[in-house]
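Question (not urgent): is this output format expected?
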Amino acid sequence: MLAHGAGAGMRHAFLQAIADALEGRRVATLRWEFPFMAAGKARPDRPEVAEAAVRAVWQAAAAQLPELPRFAGGKSFGGRMTSRAHAAQALPDVRGLVFLGFPLHPPDKPGIERAEHLASAGGPLLFLQGTRDELAPLPRLRPVVTKLGRRATLHVVDGADHGFDVLVRSGRTSAEVIDELANTIAAWMAKRAR
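Got this back:
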């Protein structure tokens, strides 16, 4: 179950690329939209509305595909709202949460308050973060992940920003970054799908 970020919906090129890459690794994705995006609004939903949407989509996915091992997460806002929903009321049978760029703090407002709920979000957690992510600088994020213990994994994407874009001078392409993300996610899920 893959939720979008605050600024772009489920059809955004990045989410499409991740979904396609995961499909190539035998991982199906269910992309969906928060109510604000479906209504064409620019301002994200309040947390309680977003969390209720996460739970509703999770329940619908479980009803449609009860035999499949299920994971949840998303890009930035989508991952954070998914983990908040899970922390408030556990998503039944979730095998783990995946964060594509966890937004540790808002732009220009450094802090770690947005991660406080993660201690209550049970189960395995996979953080995929770029070294140039201004919403989660690694010196601030690493201690958060360490505090979560062995259930939390941090995968660092060299040269990537919050949107997983890389500079041309890095010598890396967007396709290489998508492959790295998909390989990491698929391998992590495979270990937890049994």
